[in-house]
Amino acid sequence: MANWLEAKVKRLVWWNEKLFSLIVTADIDPFTAGQYTKLALQIGDERVARAYSFVNPPSSKNLEFYLIKVDDGALSAALARLQPGDSVQIAAQSNGFFTLDEVPSAEQLWMLSTGTAIGPFLSMLQEQQVWQQFQHIVLVHCVRHSKDLSYKEMIQELQEQHPQLQYVPVVTREDEATPLKKRIPALIKSGELFAHVQLEATPDVAQFMICGNPDMVKETTQCLSDLGYNRNRRRTPGHITVEQYW
């Protein structure tokens, strides 16, 4: 059973009509970048809870979550109506193994994300560990429309601080929005992703972290497996670490 705490809403940031970030404050237990917790609201007679990954680093006092408003969603629509000063319930303890502690050190780290699943990667990129563990970091964010490319200012600041970071936005439904426009599995299969960032990825130098919708995670994992990469397991280190984002 979760130990529920009261979190105070600090602000909501709307990226477009569907995507928003919820920033709250609460005295939760320490967590590791890449982990998730649960948010909940009392709706009628029921506590409705969902898991959300942190966007903020563990060192931040503000707790930030990146959400999509689903009009008939049991929780997201209610969270979207919150105002500064309102309360939301938050689980004190965080969970999840999608962290850098589970990834072997390597020359390259490829962070592959779709939609709101960029969140845990942003948490990691605001910590020092990732910059010490990898020489080249490629953050790929694949969305349908250019208006869905959120957090660009934060990413630009990270690039200015850390030249080894390459950011690859991918928009699949607008022809002229980005140089790359195919889904992530197709970009890997064709070799376009590696050519675009001018890095040669091989199993002896590359690690891949994949976070997104289940179909993307499954297809990307299969593409990488076909190229000779294996799933990371604690007893048998490999090259692929995954998180399905719903």
Overview of the structural elements:
The chain has 246 residues and is α/β, with parallel strands linked by helices. The protein folds into two domains: 4-91, Beta Barrel (Elongation Factor Tu (Ef-tu), domain 3), CATH 2.40.30.10; 100-244, 3-Layer(aba) Sandwich (Rossmann fold). The protein is built from seven helices and eleven strands. The chain has a six-stranded antiparallel beta sheet. The protein has a five-stranded parallel beta sheet with strand order 9-8-7-10-11, sandwiched between helices. Helix 7 (214-226) links the parallel strand 10 (206-212) and strand 11. Helix 5 runs parallel beside helix 7 (214-226). The mean pLDDT is 96.
* Unreliable spans: none
CATH architecture of the largest domain: 3-Layer(aba) Sandwich
Q: What is the CA-based Rg, rounded?
A: 18 Å
* Residue-averaged pLDDT: 96
Strand content: 25-35%
How would you name the oligomeric state of the polypeptide chains in this document? Answer: single chain
Please indicate the count of domains: 2
**Amount of helix:** 10-25%
How would you name the CATH homologous superfamily of the largest domain? Nucleotide-binding domain of ferredoxin-NADP reductase (FNR) module
Strand order of the largest sheet: 4-3-6-1-2-5
What is the CATH class of the largest domain?
Alpha Beta
Helix/strand class: alpha/beta
- CATH topology assignment of the largest domain: Rossmann fold
User: Helix and strand succession?
Assistant: EEEEEHEEHHEHEHHEHE
Number of strands: 11
Tertiary shape: globular
What's the number of helices? 7
